[in-house]
Amino acid sequence: MEEKKVAKMEDIVSFCKRRGFIFPTSEIYGGLANSYSYGPYGTELKNNIKKMWWKKFVQKREDIVGMDGPILLNTKLWEASGHIGGFNDASVDCKNCKKRFRADHIVKELTGEDMEGELEKMTKTLQAGLKCPECGKSDWTEVRNMSQMFQTEMNSVDGPIYLRPETAGAIFSDYKNIIDSMRVKIPFGVAQIGKAFRNEIVARNFIFRIREFEQMEIEYFIKPETDWEPLFEKWLDEQEEFALSLGAKKEDLRRYEHPKAKLSHYSKKTIDTEYNFPFGFGELFGLAHRGDFDLTQHSKFSGQKLEYFDPVTNERFTPHVLEPTVGLDRLILTAICAGYTEEKLEDGERIVMKFPNTVAPIKVAVFPLMKNKPELVAKAKEIFQNLSEDFMCEFDDNGNVGKRYRRQDEIGTPYCVTVDFDSLEDSTVTVRDRDTMQQERIAISELQKYFGEKLK
């Protein structure tokens, strides 16, 4: 059996649509640029990754609690955080073909130089003769900043309301409620999973960069004098461990530390963990030491004291924050890219998604050998109902068994159960392993225990 990993993004996109993972949204109306819906298998995959993240970073830790804040928040919050005045990206247009680009990205692509934040320099560089990659002409507008904030309005509220560009704002604004109600002891964290919205100039690379996405963030509060570097390193390791649990290989991960000149004024250190996607390395996780900037700003703008009182030392202080964050959609793309495999077999080829068991959308598929034999169908449905109590299962009686195996291989189902005529006589079934394709007979009465051990 020869294995070949496919490194083309178009193969991933096509596969996701064909097999019910991710679809372009509103397609019957011509679609909406870079907007996607998660199909049946994509939704299960998404929920599995969310559960895994929550279990690792909230459920199994005594120092982290969870919350779920709203998408619409008081506009003053975004003034305090600096988003209204400073959450911008540099934009430039080609006058000839009317194509819009994110300026720092296109300049780096054409010159290899990072000019982020230097609008005048980027304008001069582009207008010095650099050619548009779309039409080949050199006719650029000036580079200008464009806000990434989505704006809406609300009845009974004067002025604009914004869709949140990150989930962290709700955590900071409810910090006081959490310490008052939960009796948390420093160091402690607050975790949240939720939608965020950024009006990206150019959304691209499938679900890697989209305007509506889901974030998984933790704000981890520490004492100002804490020796934070070992803790920072531990968070980096935890993030990497989570990527590996999705099926990513260590050699496809690397760390990028933001140079001091590019750091936000309040950040002591920021490191991204990047994954080697088919289009190249891209940010997966972020980790930043944000100092006391957020709580200090929100205290200043709200007029409320956002401090922590340590009953052991009788100290009152504003905590500093470590912020581990990741985009759920990027984790999903990582799991799909890492799992997607083409194999050459003696009898042809197969596509198989080699998801870890905890990630796989469907854990067990149950087949009757023949769909026109009521006794086989009835027994298969009975097994399906029993296994569905504990595992996400799928019943499939369409086509021959070989084709059904291939369909389940493609969506990453670890095990298939086939009910045949022997099953009616000896109460055993055939269980097939996705990766080895080996088959064994298992007693029906032992299936729950068997899969309970295999799918831990």
Highlighted features:
alpha+beta; Rossmann fold; 15 helices; globular
Entry summary:
The chain has 15 helices and 24 strands.
How is the topology of this model organized?
Blueprint: E1 2-4, H1 9-18, E2 22-24, E3 36-38, H2 40-59, E4 64-66, H3 75-81, H4 83-86, E5 88-93, E6 100-102, H5 103-111, H6 119-127, E7 144-147, E8 150-152, E9 161-163, H7 168-173, H8 175-182, E10 188-197, E11 212-222, H9 228-245, E12 253-257, E13 269-277, E14 280-291, H10 293-302, E15 308-310, E16 315-317, E17 320-327, H11 328-339, E18 340-345, E19 348-353, E20 364-368, H12 374-388, E21 393-395, H13 401-411, E22 415-419, H14 421-426, E23 428-433, E24 439-443, H15 447-454
Parallel strand pairs: 4-10, 20-21, 20-22
Antiparallel strand pairs: 1-18, 2-3, 5-6, 5-7, 8-9, 10-11, 11-17, 12-13, 13-14, 14-17, 15-16, 18-19, 22-23, 23-24
Helix pairs in contact: 2-11, 3-10
Uncertain residue segments: none
CATH superfamily label of the largest domain: Bira Bifunctional Protein, Domain 2
CATH class division of the largest domain: Alpha Beta
The order of strands across the largest sheet is 4-10-11-17-14-13-12
Number of strands: 24
| Straight-line N-to-C gap | 27 Å
| CATH fold group of the largest domain | BirA Bifunctional Protein, domain 2
What's the assembly state of these chains?
single chain
